[in-house]
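Quick illustration, no need to memorize.
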Amino acid sequence: MKKIILAIMILSFAMFVGCTGKGEVNNNMGIQKELDAAQELFDDEEYEDSLKAYLDLMSEKPKNKDARLGVIRCQMELGNYQMAITNIDMLLQIDPQVTEAYELYLEVGERQDSIYVMLEAIRLAEQNEVEEILAKVPETPVIHLDGEYFNEAINVEITCEDEDVEIYYTMYNDLINSNGVQEYDKPIYIAGGSGSIEAFVIKDGY
């Protein structure tokens, strides 16, 4: 009798699991079909229709990463960069290890020619320890002074160990809050006063 009961329990369990697994497979197939259709619209450069398709899918599956990535890409192609950033932030709240989210964040900064957006993407990658992104970040630039104090005119030189990088800087002093982001191409002459310099580099969009 015990053997019969045991056999029935196993059979019932197997049947139950089998039915659930089939339902999940069918559901996943349906989601993938919708993702493929939305991607096809994107490939055909029908970005608004593609965005609608991704949004419809995301309304059903708000945590689906592929759907949200599709929304982000569509918004970028439509020039809705702030909405793209908002969705990137939301995706990173769901899963902070989605490498493509950081890559798209950096691409938004590059398209907008915004150093600050790119720096924010790197900051988030550092915060969440996303090594795949951090591995692409070049070495920190080094600021060299030909004097110790700003009580006399000095020249400031910025270098980086990595090759093929673009160096940028922002200078603050007692005359101006900031001179904005400037590309470094020669030593910076400072007549005097007090202040600070922030430097950063970009390599291949990072």
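The chain has seven helices and six strands.
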